[in-house]
Amino acid sequence: MILNQIFTSQRSGNHAPTRAHRTDFQRDFDRIIFSSAFRRLQNKTQVFPLPGSVFVHNRLTHSLEVSSVGRSLGSVAGEFIVDKYKNELTDDALDFYQHNLSNVIAAACLCHDVGNPAFGHSGEDAIASYFERNESDLKSLFSEKEWADLINFEGNANAIRTLTHQQTGKDVGGTQLTYTTLASIAKYPCEAVARTKGILHRKKFGFFQNEKETFLDIAHAVKMTSESEDPVIFRRHPFVWLVEAADDICYNIIDMEDAHRLGIISTDVTQELFLELIKSENRDIQKVTQKLSEISNANERISYLRAKVINALINKATELYKFNFEKILEGNLDKALLEIFLNENPSLKEIERFSIEHIYGHRSVVEIENAGYNVMYELLDHFIPPVIKNPSERKSYDKKALQLIPQQFCYENGSLYQKTLGVIDFVSGMTDNFATDLYRKIKGIEIGMTV
């Protein structure tokens, strides 16, 4: 049975499973926690930039909360699979679904954003548009598939690279996670030239050409269904839906809580939106309103409702996962779990509409998106031209620019594509503050010695 074959302890870098008091999937979680790529998320914008004394979410706190929700989803899904298929599962599979699926989903949720650059989606846009806007000078230097990677830069694909790529001077296999965890973050398991709007698993892409063989190893090890060999396209792994649902649950709701803490939306409006969603899914609304009447602090009231909303959405996501499980196993489900619910629930649809208009369109958010775009674009413009030049043709200012790139991102013996990816690794890995500081220094806006 396929459920016996879609998980493995095999790791990137061909590291063999080890016997220890932690399972291989628990070790994935711990490796991510201690990785530098994960730590850098603490200073990468989630939605609201550098709010001063008011604490709101960054990419790291968002990822921790997504991981918490994901663990719950994985636990319920594991119980469901064991109950429904226990007579068909091997002993290893029974143990995995009972005790380790929740660890896999938690670990995958923890690292789902590690490939995202500074300044949110505007950072992604800046990297992609840099190559688009310089097409006449750069396109001829790359193959068609390499060029597609660059002009469609994608944080999801960059996550696979961040977690598996061997940087100069470092160990093979990157973070050396299990293929099971890596497959669980592959929302778009295809190469860039296969991107197709309107098809969920091909809306974006999941790996760069440089990591194509690594991704094929992952896909084959966990028995992902192949849709095409050229271009490479797979159907989603069954665990991806749980990771995606955890992410969707958190950002749909917690961005509202952050906006309330910042005074962008009022307590009354936030409370009304949350209560309407709870009413639509919770028959015991009287207990919720009674508890709410006992809390006078505005932030605490919204925090309580946020918790109830998240619980309702977890229950709904698991219900939809179970109902659609056969389609998921076959690779035939064409909508995300929260998208299915969104289409049938006016309350969640209203939260999405309100968020787009009043939160994501708020002036402070738009300002940081504009600033972030310019910072990231200018950093690439400082490093890409010298790195693609033949070393013998580099001027002194080219060499000075390249001296700023740490050695682990330098691939002087590689192709132009690999050298370019090295620069992108450096720039996309920067935190908001580091990118801003470096931009100010190389532009001469701030001059001084930094040790």
Automatic annotation (TrEMBL):
Record's keyword annotation contains Transport: no
SMART domains per record: HDc
Domain HD/PDEase: 55-261
Annotated GO biological process: dGTP catabolic process
Organism: Chryseobacterium lacus
Swiss-Prot/TrEMBL keywords: Hydrolase
InterPro entries: dGTP_triP_hydro_central_sf, dGTP_triphosphohydrolase_C, dGTPase, dGTPase-like, HD/PDEase_dom, PHydrolase_assoc_dom
Record's protein name: DNTP triphosphohydrolase
Family annotation (SUPFAM superfamilies): HD-domain/PDEase-like
Region described as Disordered: 1-21
Gene Ontology molecular function, alphabetical: dGTPase activity
Compositionally skewed regions (Polar residues) per UniProt: 1-15
Cleaved signal peptide residues: none
Matches recorded under Pfam families: HD_assoc
